[in-house]
Amino acid sequence: MGAHYRVELEFQKTAGTREPFNHSAGVQVGIRATDLKNAYWLRLGVFDNTEHELSIEVNGAGFTPLAPKVAGDIETGRWYRVRLEARGHRLRAWLDGVLQFDLVDRRLPAGRVALWGTG
User: What is the CATH number of domain 5-118?
Assistant: First the structure.
């Protein structure tokens, strides 16, 4: 399990839900995950594909945003680049080269990378 690392990936959304109020639908990349119930999550295209957020989940108690949400959607058929960095207590996330989140949180000091796609 790592404490300091950078994750870079490309993804393409191939389909999505049309279900209203599906707040978890989207692409989610976790860092410092000890399991799927304890991780920092970059959540892209959530809240009916209208927002992105960086959140924490501890003991499966649900997602708690760590910073204000950023307006944005994930288009079907388009490729995206994501970069996440964890250095010390600092967490940063980029989407297509644009910094979306830059913050400090001390709750999860180490863990693995996790990928999650829904909706």
Answer: 2.60.120.560
